[in-house]
Specification:
Number of helices: 23
Helix content: 40-55%
Radius of gyration: 63 Å
Structural class: alpha+beta
CATH superfamily of the largest domain: Histidine kinase-like ATPase, C-terminal domain
Largest sheet: 5 strands, antiparallel
Distance between the termini: 112 Å
Number of domains: 5
CATH topology of the largest domain: Heat Shock Protein 90
Shape: elongated
Strand order of the largest sheet: 2-1-5-4-3
CATH class of the largest domain: Alpha Beta
Mean pLDDT: 79
């Protein structure tokens, strides 16, 4: 408060100085304007002294009076040039008297001046003067200390008057806001540090205080934002207190930049959130204890394992009494025996895995827990406990023990079985004529089985035990390749050892052998040992040679058959084409006979003529179908991407007469794209739908649908016709194969053969699903992508 008073005195003195300079300036002006009139000078100088008195500083009044006297004397000297001495003396005497009286009266009004005069008049003792000087020195020292404290404050300290202008501004304010004291003093606080959004509220608060003397925010701790000189905002803590002074009430603001504190608080909050998230993400229960054994914190897993909805249900409770009060057998677990407490009693970690914790519902579960001491600033403050429900572990341990016992029994049984199997394997290898060999690659010693020796016609007692015993019996033409196969395997250029070669028998003949083996390598990749089998494949090699001979013969036969098929196709085309001309003549003349002589000859003649006409028509139909069959290959068009919806439309248009004739109901699904010969696919669908209409029992109902995958589409034609017995499902696709007479159902028996040939050319399949009397469904697979078919196959 002393510091604030000192500041107010400084401000008052500054204003007094200003008034003094105004008075002095006025005195000089009066002197210059009317220096000849002593009366006006006297009045003016009296006014000068009165103005100086407004500064309320005695030395200002005395200085003004002295200046007035000096100027009066100067004016008198100048007046002697124009007036007499007596006149000037009288006038100056009156002026000086007026100035002296005014000066005395002005000094009498100043506080403390009269007392000082009285003290001087009465006489002040040396002791009193010394005491007064001491008090003044103490006051000056106190003011100096206050000023130092004001400037050294870690908070920005700002004083303002009731107009909002800055009257004082300490060093920390300069550092905090970027304005120097000289720049800030006298300026409105709103122009310096108050953000735009707070300025109206600041002005209203000052006005409200001037009118009511009340300030709701005074002596309150506030958090808001301030403005730096560079225009940036930052968070501050603010406290404003009123300062009652002689010169008028002012306000002192203590401002602290809390940017760093806010960041630290945010960082701590974020760290706490991360720690909490980490604790809550673990499957283990974790809780803290103070030195009394009370819970200080717990994670969500702890609450869940103990059967509580939230950790808040047991925080601040004694955890031993809550969850650790009894042992596995139900007996009381004394708190002074609790192993968990050792962490903060003896400052040592504890791990226990043979105790139980008790849930909220009164049930217990086996746990393994760890308790470690918890310190703060080197002082022991409690412990942290981590625990696991080991019910499943115990169950697994029991199950593992039982499994181990079973495995031991199984191993014993399997050992016996393995011994039996080994004996059987040896018998099997002997029976299968499979020889065994075991090669120690480090010293070239080899063990050959009895069967191995017998394969080459040698008795079991033959003394073979070196690699050279095998090497020396190789066929000369096979030595290099046999060594190469071994080297590639040992050098890891081949994943397995498998080699065929010829070996010389005891009688001098050679037999083909197959050798296979596996090696064991050291850490450097060098072979240590290799074991394997030795199989006589002489008969297999002879069979392979015979099979190759037969395959070569078969390929020659296939080539001949292909040539024959080509010639047959050409013959069928030429024959059917050449038959068309004479057949047309026969058909024409027979129809002329029927039209010209029908009814004019006897009945037998009419019958013969009718038979001729029908036979010719059947022959023409058969030749046409035969031509279609041959043209599947001979007049095939390139494959292209085509819509099966368009193919269906073309087929229905060609079958329109049959559809109308039999009142058939033909429907389809939305059909996909396919890849093929458009004309042949139309012929395929026309044949299948036409057959479905032809072979009907009642009103024909035909439906066309598809299923598709990435590479092919399956086209299905389903009808409600007479059906086909299982025995004929393959035979109906043969050329000229008919299941009914021409009188029952007309046709040549070539239609389905044409369908199969078209489907085969497209790389697909065709088959039927049917039973006699229940209708039929013909399925055809067609390619979707161009790469899925070898065109023209």
């Amino acid at each position: 408060m002393t510091n604030r008073t000192s500041n107010s005195d400084v401000i008052s003195e500054s204003k007094g100085n200003l008034r003094f300079f105004v008075a002095g300036g006025l005195a000089l002006v009066i002197f210059l304007v009317d220096m000849q009139s002593q009366k006006s000078l006297a009045v003016g100088y009296v006014l000068v002294v009165a103005i100086a008195q407004c500064s309320k500083i005695a030395r200002h009044v005395l200085a003004a009076a002295t200046l007035s006297l000096i100027l009066t004397f100067v004016a008198a000297i100048l007046a002697l040039r124009t007036a007499g001495v007596a006149t000037v003396a009288v006038q100056n005497g009156l002026a000086l008297t007026a100035i002296a009286v005014t000066t005395y009266l002005c000094l009498q009004t100043l506080p403390g001046f009269r007392g000082r005069l009285k003290d001087k008049g009465e006489g002040v003792s040396d002791a009193s003067l010394t005491e007064l000087q001491g008090e003044r020195a103490k006051l000056a020292a106190s003011q100096q200390r206050s000023q130092l404290m004001f400037e050294a404050s870690l908070d920005a300290v700002i004083t303002i008057d009731q107009s909002g202008s800055v009257t004082d501004w300490n060093n920390q304010a300069e550092q905090t806001f970027g304005w120097s004291k000289s720049e800030a003093t006298g300026r409105l606080l709103t122009d310096l540090i108050i953000p735009e959004r707070y300025r109206d509220a600041h002005r209203r608060g000052l006005e409200h205080y001037r009118l009511t003397g009340e300030g709701p925010i005074l002596n309150q701790r506030l958090e808001l934002y301030a403005l730096n000189r560079n225009g940036t905002e930052f968070p501050v803590e603010l406290t404003i207190v009123p300062l009652p002074l002689d010169s008028g009430e002012q306000f002192c603001a203590y401002v602290r930049d809390v940017t760093h504190a806010k960041k630290v608080t945010a960082d701590l909050g974020e760290r706490e959130s991360r720690i909490r998230a980490l604790l809550d993400s673990t499957a283990e229960g974790i809780y803290g204890l103070d030195l009394e054994g009370n819970c200080t914190f717990a994670n969500s897993a702890c609450a869940r394992l103990l059967g509580y909805e939230s950790a808040d249900d047991f925080v601040n409770q004694n955890m031993h009494r809550l969850i650790h009060h009894s042992k596995t057998d139900g007996s009381v677990y004394a708190e002074d025996e609790c192993q968990i407490y050792l962490a903060f009693q003896k400052c040592e970690g504890v791990n226990v895995d043979n105790e139980v914790f008790w849930r909220k519902d009164g049930t217990s579960f086996p746990v393994e827990y760890w308790s470690y001491p918890l310190t703060e600033n080197g002082d022991l403050v409690g412990s942290v406990v981590t625990f696991l429900d080991i019910s499943e572990r115990i169950s697994l341990t029991v199950a593992q023990r039982e499994l181990t016992e079973k495995l031991e029994q199984l191993v014993a049984t399997r050992t016996d079985d393995l011994s039996t199997t080994r004996d059987r394997l040896e018998l099997t290898l002997v029976g299968a004529n499979v020889g065994l060999w075991d090669w120690n690659a480090t010293n070239d010693e080899v063990t050959y089985s009895t069967t191995y020796k017998r394969q080459l016609g040698y008795p079991p007692e033959t003394d073979w035990n070196k690699f050279q015993d095998w090497e020396s019996r190789l066929h000369p033409d096979d030595v290099e390749l046999a060594h190469q196969m071994v080297a590639e395997y040992f050098e890891h250029r081949s994943p397995e050892y498998k080699s065929t070669f010829r070996m010389r028998c005891k009688d001098g003949s050679y037999r083909w052998m197959l050798a296979q083996g596996k090696a064991v390598f050291d850490s450097d990749g060098k072979p240590l040992r290799m074991t394997g089998v030795h199989v006589d494949i002489t008969e297999r090699r002879e069979s392979e040679r015979e099979l190759k001979r037969l395959n070569d013969a078969l390929q020659e036969a296939n080539l001949a058959l292909q040539e024959s098929n080509v010639e047959l196709q050409q013959f069928a085309y030429v024959a059917s084409h050449d038959l068309q001309t004479p057949l047309r003549a026969i058909a024409g003349f027979s129809q002329f006979l029927q039209s010209d002589f029908s009814g004019r000859l006897d009945a037998r003649a009419d019958d013969y003529i009718s038979r001729i006409v029908r036979g010719v028509k059947r022959m023409q139909k058969m030749i046409d179908d035969l031509l279609q069959f041959s043209r599947v290959e001979s007049r095939a068009a390139p494959f292209e991407q085509i819509s099966l919806n368009d193919v269906y439309a073309d087929a229905i248009e060609l079958l329109n007469a049959s559809v109308v004739q039999f009142d058939a109901e033909v429907t389809r699904d939305d059909l996909p794209m396919a890849f093929g010969d458009p004309a042949q696919l139309t012929q395929l669908l026309m044949n299948l739908i036409g057959n479905a209409i032809k072979y009907h029992r009642e009103k024909p109902v035909v439906h066309v649908s598809t299923t598709a995958n990435d590479n092919e589409v399956t086209l299905s034609v389903k009808d409600n016709g007479i059906g086909i017995a299982d025995v004929y499902h393959e035979r109906i696709f043969e050329v000229f194969r008919r299941l009914h007479t021409s009188s029952e159902y007309p046709g040549t028996g070539i239609g389905l053969a044409v369908c199969r040939r078209i489907v085969k050319r497209h790389g697909g399949r065709i088959w039927v699903e049917s039973a006699e009397g229940v209708g039929s469904t013909f399925h055809v697979t067609l390619p979707v992508l161009k790469d899925s078919i070898d065109e023209g196959a």
